[in-house]
Design brief:
By secondary structure, this protein is mostly helical. The protein has a domain of 35 residues. It has 37 helices and no strands. Helix 1 runs antiparallel to helix 2. The chain is rod-shaped.
């Protein structure tokens, strides 16, 4: 097959000029030459094809010997693909960016992957590391992680032991431990002292607000004497209960009488006034009247427009108007936005679900 057609034919012509014996041999050579040419044609080889390493079959696939070694067809070559690259989803262009099909789906190049960035993360300023801490560029600038943000803490506040709530009351951790706010501190009051109506000055005299009102110091109190009692010569016992025979029959003391209480009413925590409103002590503590209780409303809930049912859904009157529950609000969705598939984030990019796909 390697013999050149022209060489064989040239030999044939030269041999035919010799003796008959030689000419007989040329017939044999002619037979050989014909077989060689037939064999070449069977492989689809011409000179030109042979130079490129092409048979008819290879040509159909666009393969030369060289291409075949690299796994290239004409089509693949146009895309810069070898068999190996194709397995990884790489073209020359993708390879330059460090992209495989898989990476491209996630928006990853080699560079981004090293930083843990996808297109989405990059838009929010997130790397894997930042994401683990709940940090975006913006949060990081304020020293906020998700956890800190939930408590209203920045780095600065944290150093002082302040949350948003504490700050509103003028409390640091230290002050809180002592029961001090800025205002209390000015008067020398802790929670304990305030409960007793004591400032530093009163404490020195043994006076509380209550004692002062009755003209009592510790010394007088030991004898059960107020200025008033002392003038009338009353003992503690009678006055303490404020009882006359008549009052005693009804279970009334002075104190009870002032509030409209008998023993029976007192057991239920009812005064005349409370009874009119359907209030016991327990209900009053929660801000409940009979009517409110039917609706599941306390004073606090009523201020926010919440009933038990609404509260379960995280709805106030205001939220309900916008179609927001706590969950939706977290995603920035109102009923309207939800129908379009828009969150606050998407909206800023002008994306609906449809566009996003």
């Amino acid at each position: 097959l390697a013999l050149d057609d022209a060489v064989l034919r040239h030999r044939q012509l030269n041999i035919s000029r010799f003796s008959p014996r030689v000419a007989g041999e040329s017939d044999f050579l002619q037979t050989v030459i014909n077989k060689v040419i037939a064999a070449k044609e069977a492989w689809g080889l011409t000179k030109g094809r042979q130079a490129w390493g092409l048979t008819k079959g290879r040509q159909a696939w666009g393969l030369t010997k060289g291409r075949q070694a690299w796994g290239l067809t004409k089509g693949r070559q146009a895309w810069g693909l070898t068999k190996g690259r194709q397995a990884w989803g790489l073209t020359k262009g993708r390879q330059a960016w460090g992209l495989t099909k898989g990476r491209q789906a996630w928006g990853l190049t080699k560079g981004r992957q090293a930083w843990g960035l996808t297109k989405g993360r990059q838009a929010w300023g997130l790397t894997k590391g930042r994401q683990a801490w709940g940090l975006t560029k913006g949060r990081q600038a304020w020293g906020l992680t998700k956890g800190r943000q939930a408590w209203g803490l920045t780095k600065g506040r944290q150093a002082w032991g302040l949350t948003k709530g504490r700050q509103a009351w003028g409390l640091t951790k230290g002050r809180q431990a002592c029961g001090l706010t800025k205002g209390r501190q000015a008067w020398g009051l802790t929670k304990g002292r305030q409960a007793w109506g004591l400032t530093k000055g009163r404490q020195a005299w043994g006076l509380t607000k209550g004692r002062q009102a009755w003209g009592l110091t510790k010394g007088r109190q030991a004898w059960g004497l107020t200025k008033g009692r002392q003038a009338w010569g009353l003992t503690k016992g009678r006055q303490a209960w404020g009882l006359t025979k008549g009052r005693q029959a009804w279970g009334l003391t002075k104190g009870r009488q002032a509030w409209g209480l008998t023993k029976g009413r007192q057991a239920w925590g009812l005064t005349k006034g409370r009874q009119a409103w359907g209030l016991t002590k327990g209900r009053q503590a929660w801000g409940l009247t009979k009517g409110r209780q039917a609706w599941g409303l306390t004073k606090g809930r009523q201020a926010w427009g919440l009933t038990k049912g609404r509260q379960a859904w995280g709805l106030t009157k205001g939220r309900q108007a916008w179609g927001l529950t706590k969950g939706r609000q977290a995603w920035g969705l109102t009923k309207g936005r939800q129908s379009w598939g828009l969150t606050k984030g998407r909206q800023s990019w002008g994306l609906t679900k449809g566009r996003q796909s």
